[in-house]
Amino acid sequence: TEFRKRTKATPTTAIYKMRWWRVAAIVLLFAGVAAIIKLSNNSPIKQPGVLKFVAGDIVQTYTLPDGSVVQLQPHAELICPAKFITSKRSVALKGDAYFSVLHDASRPFQISVNNVKVTVLGTSFKISTKYGNTEVDVITGVVQVTKEERSIKVFPHEKLIVPAANDFWIKQSDTLSHIQLPKQNQLQQGN
After folding, report:
1. CA distances (Å), origin 169, targets 88, 103, 153
2. Which end of the chain is more exposed for a tag (fewer CB within 10 A), N or C?
3. pLDDT tens per residue across span 125-170
4. Is the C-alpha dihedral spanning 160, 72, 101, 45 positive or negative?
5. How far is CA 2 from CA 6, 7, 9, 11, 141, in A?
């Protein structure tokens, strides 16, 4: 019984042990937060900001971060990074737009619209979307249009129609007469 009395914890000892665990927990918490902050600041890949361009009820012309120019038709939207930091210059389009893309062979320009990808190196063209169909009219240069496993090149004065519902693509020649091209100074003015 004498041994039990000597080994029994006193209230003061229990409080001391409890405070020690609290201090240890707080130190570990701060160390974990500091490690997370340090790792996130040293990350080599930072998420770029995102730009969203919306035409509203009128045609709007914008200059993209790489110097390319896009003319959005009414109610069209374009989303792109605030800075192109990867090997591709990728944007997402909803609606119709004219593009004048600066040439950069090391970084192709890619537009995603209606599950279709349009890839260019430097050219001018129009993309239209109607009822889920995608139409690409090439004015100058060459673009490559891809949907799922299928891909085709479209050359100047050609139009490609990619229907939403089937795999029957339509390619037409000498088609620039039916589209109204923006005036050159309109595409050079960027917002």
Report:
1. 26, 27, 12
2. N
3. 999 998 889 999 998 899 999 998 899 999 999 999 999 887 789 9
4. negative
5. 6, 9, 14, 19, 98
Q: Are strands 97-100 and 89-94 parallel, antiparallel or unpaired?
A: unpaired
Write 55-64 long-range contacts (CB < 8 A, 24+): 55/95, 59/182, 60/191, 61/182, 61/186, 61/187, 61/189, 61/190, 61/191, 62/190, 62/191, 63/190, 63/191, 64/89, 64/91
- Burial tier of 152 (Cβ tally within 10 Å: 0-12, 13-18, 19+): middle
* Identity of the residue numbered 110: Q
> Which token pair is 29?
């918490």
**Residue 69 contacts by C-beta under 8 Å, 6 or more apart in sequence?**
61, 62, 63, 99, 100, 187, 188, 190
- In the DSSP assignment, the letter for residue 182 is P
Residue 70 in tokens: 């896009």
- Closest by CA to 173, choosing from 159, 191, 184, is 159
Q: What share of the chain is helix, strand, coil (3-state, %, to 5)?
A: 25, 40, 40
